[in-house]
Amino acid sequence: MNLTFSARKTELDARFKERAQKKLNKFDRFFDSASAFATVTRERDRFTVEITISSGGMFYRSENTAFDEYNALEGATNAIFRQISKNKTKLAKKLRKDAFVPQPDDLSSEIETVGDEEEYKIVKSKTFSVKPMTIDEAILQMNMLEHEFFIFKNSGTNETSVVYKRKDGDYGLLEPEVL
Fold first, then answer.
1. Phi/psi of residue 143, each to 5°?
2. Of 73, 89, 96, 128, whose CB is crowded by the most CB atoms within 10 A?
3. Is 49 within 8 Å of 63 (Cβ atoms)?
């Protein structure tokens, strides 16, 4: 697995990088080819490790905060493993066929206002590719990313749509209507 590191307000030593590579290489059994991006951020006395794995148009993301970077890494990798395990039947077509054969080193052990007018301030802009998928695939992808909404190209209508998580735990779908 190709792994890229990013550090904010901290320095990463070689031992941490080796440990992260070893932990993430265990996910190779799930993917034919994948790339991972790990970001380590230090805020006062806490470390946050965010891991994003990209494979075949699907993204798997987790984040964990702990008092040291090693425990945060452990929690983040375990969270991705739980996501994949929880959704293994839905992901079966996207992941390797032999991915869920038990192995001895299984991871489971382990707005700004001015006067009377409001000015909207854009603090981040992001572009992404929109892949044709079914509504169920879009909901699965949204859950894997732990987001509240997800934009996708509906393979049934060939239109850009949005799925979102409602406060009651159900899901909503926004579809455009041309006037």
1. -65, -40
2. 73
3. yes
What CA–CA distance (Å, rounded) separates 8 from 86? Answer: 31
Domains of the chain: 2-91 (3.30.160.100), 112-174 (3.30.505.50)
The pTM is what? 0.64
| Neighbour-count burial for 127-161, b at 16+ CB within 10 Å, e otherwise | eeeeeebebebbbbbbbbbeeeebebebeeeeeeb
Instruction: Specify whether the CB–CB gap between 98 and 104 falls below 8 A.
Output: no
The packing angle between helices 69-86 and 14-25, to 10°, is 10
Question: 72 by DSSP, 3-state: which?
Answer: helix
How far is it, in rounded angstroms, from Cα 102 to Cα 137?
A: 26
